[in-house]
Amino acid sequence: MKLLLTSGGVTNSSIHSALVQLLGKPIAECHALVVPTAQWGHPMCGPTSVRGLVAAEPTWQHFSGLGWASLGVLELTALPTIGAERWVPWVREADVLLVDGGDATYLYHWMRESGLADLLPSLPDTVWVGVSAGSMVMTPRIGDYFVEWPSAPDDRTLGVVDFSIFPHLDLFPTNTLTHAERWAADIGVPAYAIDEQTAIKVVDGSVEVVSEGQWTKFGS
Q1: 58: Cβ–Cβ under 8 A, 6 or more apart, which residues?
Q2: Which UniProt keywords apply (predicted)?
């Protein structure tokens, strides 16, 4: 897939341009599926925040509220019970998957359980836009620092990319550069700390940081 891994969404013109380049056409002509699943695994999320995401309320203007041609919901926890013959065509017909934040280990679990993880290699033209956990799930591991789901066996995630992500740099008191440095010291792979104005674009293994804000890379 083509990946646009963000902390806070499509928050500036540089990230917006990168997204349009990945899509190959204007956002208004693209059909999107939004994935709220990670929210259910995080104690700070719940019915109200899921509704806001799906309804593209102002808080999500940089994500589900970008002005898509259509916006559907792909809830991964439901997929194992309805059969791949129903949901796989929905995914194949979408131009973009908008994968929201929450807990990345919970999202990883349901990507495996639903079969979506196995489908990803057959979607070379689909764009994956992640916010926070929706980006972190593509990395090898997230670090114990970010595990909020009590049933998570460990901090491992999909490993589609070979680096880890520390999101929301300087957005919260617990997400300073000092915290990121401590986290990176134990993560065991190259890593990026990114703020809300930064994204990481990955196409065919080529990694490019797109930013109008602050970011730091740890490791080679």
Answers
A1: 65
A2: Hydrolase, Protease, Serine protease
